[in-house]
Amino acid sequence: MKKSLRLLYIxxxxxxxxxxxxxxxxxxxxxxxxxxxxxxxxxxxxxxxSAWFFQTKLYKSHLEEFVQNRAMTLRAKVSLCAFxxxxxxxxxxxxxNVYARLFVSLVVIYKYYYFVFKIRTIKPKVSGExxxxxxxxEHI
Length: 140
Description:
Shape: globular
Largest sheet: 2 strands, parallel
Strand content: under 5%
Oligomer: single chain
Structural class: mainly alpha
Strand order of the largest sheet: 1-2
Number of domains: 2
């Protein structure tokens, strides 16, 4: 692969990580899709950066469970679906073609089918302090 293309993949990977990190802070911007894109770009651009990315707390907190078990929290599912739906609906609104709108509608329907029936919903992990509090509450 050309060095310039690998460099482009690495730059796009870091850009995606940056946007994903902003999504952690801003609830309106979803984190997971940008981290998935970053994972793709890093895997195409560099084994070293790909390995680094898989070790980050950002990856472990937001993607690891999905990648390993095809499972997501309800919050992650809702934020992903809301973001993707808004982008798809905006594109359907801006395109003045019946076939394109029909195609976008089918994509939206399939997306919801996939998220509801193909990706398991899991409970969010409780932090260490919360686990201790929950364990104490169960014993009382």
